[in-house]
Design brief:
Largest sheet of chain A: 3 strands, antiparallel
CATH topology of the largest domain in chain A: Non-ribosomal Peptide Synthetase Peptidyl Carrier Protein, Chain A
Radius of gyration of chain A: 18 Å
Shape of chain A: elongated
Distance between the termini of chain A: 38 Å
Largest interface: A-B, 32 and 34 residues
Number of strands of chain A: 3
CATH class of the largest domain in chain A: Mainly Alpha
Structural class of chain A: mainly alpha
Order of helices and strands of chain A: HEHHEEHHHH
Low-confidence stretches of chain A: none
Helix content of chain A: 55-70%
Oligomer: homodimer
Strand order of the largest sheet of chain A: 1-3-2
Chain lengths: 156, 156
DNA sequence: TGCTATAATAGTCAAAGTAAGTCAACTAGA
DNA sequence: TCTAGTTGACTTACTTTGACTATTATAGCA
């Protein structure tokens, strides 16, 4: 029997056939497959992670939802993952600036966007010991880079 | 089902389309949406806070009302310093998001820029103990806000 | 006129309702 | 047997409601 997780994965991907994003109710989906709601989280975590090129947004409470967004891996095939890999979990300011410049050169961000990003990773934006700064800068920059690709995807 | 709160928020913002302020009767509004009057207070508290760029004035008793005022800004300089002051050296994620939304509402940033900024201050962008996160978020956000104003200045 | 009672409003807060997230223990298939 | 998959109890977050409180205008009365 095809694994439940596989079926759910397929189901979600089918729903995303046309359109870069969908919204689902976790409970509805779970009910549809007759499984525990947390099973949905499992599928999302294992098949729709950032590494897989997706971003998950959600909201709890009444009217809650889970939104699954496919990130565009635009121009050069795996630019996004290459960048994320380059950033890793620690990066110095100069390298960060270079990456942002790269995005600008490729016209993946506007000049204003690039400036905002630079401001976010500037050394004086991170009031911490130097080594910690690099770690933090990496996570802030990764978040922004992912967002840039998501923006690009949606704009298509 | 679109959330009641969301509908009410939309309704109010539509009413404010032209004009920086409106006045409503809490009970009327509640009746219009078929909900408890205090629901209106909830919407105001969560979507029309000062961080969102609104001021609420009201009066009880006969002829009572609730006035919703979109904060005007005499000059960008004032807004900038107001925002920086609000950010201070520590700010939680919700407030940061509200401030970014405020910038977007005022069209000081584009949707894509706003998204990038949100990504930079998201909790998962800051892998640190919670209290430290707020401090860091404040400095990152301040840096970006300053940059936004600088961009605007240059664009003129 | 000046005071008081009443009606008309809005504010606050806590409880209940709704929905997603986490985590650790259990299960089953390769 | 080992790992991916599955489940359920518990936690966190957001929304909605209702009971109770506070404030203000006004009508009626002394």
């Amino acid at each position: 029997m095809a694994q439940l997780s596989d079926s759910i994965e397929r189901f979600i991907k089918d729903m995303m056939e046309d359109g870069a994003q969908i919204e689902v109710r976790r409970n509805e989906l779970a009910q549809h497959f007759g499984c525990a709601p947390s099973q949905i989280n499992y599928v999302l975590a294992t098949r729709f992670s950032v590494d897989h090129g997706y971003i998950i947004e959600s909201r709890r409470g009444g009217g809650g939802y889970i939104r699954i967004v496919r990130m565009g891996v635009n121009s050069p095939e795996n630019l996004l993952s290459a960048l994320l890999q380059r950033i890793g979990n620690s990066i110095d300011e100069d390298s960060a600036v270079a990456i942002i410049q790269n995005l600008l050169d490729r016209r993946l961000v506007t000049l204003n966007e690039a400036r905002i990003m630079r401001a976010a990773v500037a050394k004086n934006a991170l009031a911490l010991p130097v080594s910690a700064k690099d770690v933090l800068r990496a996570s802030v920059l990764s978040g922004m880079v992912r967002q840039v690709f998501q923006n690009a995807e949606e704009g298509k």
